[in-house]
């Protein structure tokens, strides 16, 4: 079986390390732990700084950015900083940070200036942010999350303007439909230099879930040269059919120009202490950790050419980086 280098756009290792005192990056308790990354031939992994809408949001965001920095000393034989761009290296895995929810910049009540001070501190720790998601599931001061209805708020407009020209993409994976529409509209109206992507989202035409992209928004991301990272969570694929992941991938390749935007964004996070047992198992066995990428690509052999699988595995992300990182 051919082995493809993998770039994945989203995992939650940092919040796992923050919230579990005995957690380690090389644990097999976590789907994107180092052993699985190596087995799946992952060459680059985006590490999300995740925060909820809560009083401790900014503190948790800063703490995760510090943990990101520590990965290079704690696992110097495994991780290297990929902020200058991805280059295949047999001796390690390139990593780069992202921000999942701008709540990690400031809580709901503090002055907005604090958000930008904290953002600069985070950037000092991580060197580069691949993307910023304005929201998670809930609504916050920047806009509506995917389980909310609010669109882009004034603080979100300011954040978009701050991001313009800073080589940080805006992520639409956790937006409400209204927020996604407003972000896309506002960046055009104000001629902002902000790339767009959906780091870990699937397609609503295949599985009707608010976490998945409408066809309109998916096509707009493709048309702007963005990326769409396929999410492996069962709830966003189809509760009963593991082969639905292949259906989502094939749908993406059928979008006009879609083969140049498709990528992986598996969304591995620690599920061992999740309070809602109805969601277990979170992943089908075929997709349960980062060792599975090569098997997934092999299953696509009848649907995609090797050239298309190369684009999905790593080439599209490399092209995005080449186009947007200076």
TrEMBL record:
Q: Name one Pfam family in it.
A: Peptidase_M19
GO BP terms, alphabetized: proteolysis
Gene3D superfamilies (UniProt xref): Metal-dependent hydrolases (3.20.20.140)
Q: Tell me one GO molecular function of this protein.
A: metallodipeptidase activity
State which residue ranges cross the membrane: none
How is this protein named in the record? Answer: Peptidase
Identify the species of origin: Roseivirga misakiensis
């Amino acid at each position: 079986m051919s082995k493809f280098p993998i770039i994945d756009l989203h995992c939650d290792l940092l919040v796992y390390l923050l919230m579990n005192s005995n957690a380690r990056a090389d644990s097999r308790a976590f789907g994107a732990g180092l052993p699985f990354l190596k087995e799946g031939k992952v060459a680059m992994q985006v590490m999300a700084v995740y925060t909820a809408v809560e009083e401790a949001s900014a503190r948790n965001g800063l703490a995760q950015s510090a943990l990101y920095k520590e990965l290079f000393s704690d696992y110097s034989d495994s991780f290297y900083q990929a902020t200058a761009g991805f280059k295949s290296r047999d001796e390690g895995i390139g990593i780069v940070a992202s921000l999942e929810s701008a709540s990690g910049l400031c809580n709901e009540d503090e002055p907005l200036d604090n958000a930008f001070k904290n953002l600069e501190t985070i950037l000092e720790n991580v060197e580069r942010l691949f993307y910023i998601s304005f929201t998670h599931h809930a609504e916050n001061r920047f806009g509506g999350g995917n389980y909310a209805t609010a669109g882009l708020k004034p603080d979100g407009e300011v954040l978009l303007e701050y991001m313009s020209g800073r080589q940080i993409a805006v992520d639409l994976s956790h937006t409400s439909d209204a927020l996604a529409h407003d972000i896309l509209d506002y960046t055009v109206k104000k001629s902002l230099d902000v790339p767009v992507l959906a780091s870990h989202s699937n397609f609503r035409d295949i599985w009707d879930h608010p976490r998945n992209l409408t066809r309109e928004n998916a096509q707009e991301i493709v048309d702007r040269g963005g990326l769409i990272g396929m999410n492996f969570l069962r709830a966003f694929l189809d509760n009963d059919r593991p082969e639905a992941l292949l259906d989502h991938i094939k749908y993406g390749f059928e979008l006009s120009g879609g083969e140049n935007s498709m990528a992986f964004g598996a969304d591995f996070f620690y599920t061992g202490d999740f309070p809602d047992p109805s969601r277990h198992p979170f992943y089908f066995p075929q997709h349960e950790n980062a060792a599975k990428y090569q098997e997934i690509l092999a299953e696509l052999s009848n649907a995609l050419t090797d050239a298309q699988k190369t684009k999905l595995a790593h080439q599209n992300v490399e092209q995005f980086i080449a186009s947007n990182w200076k």
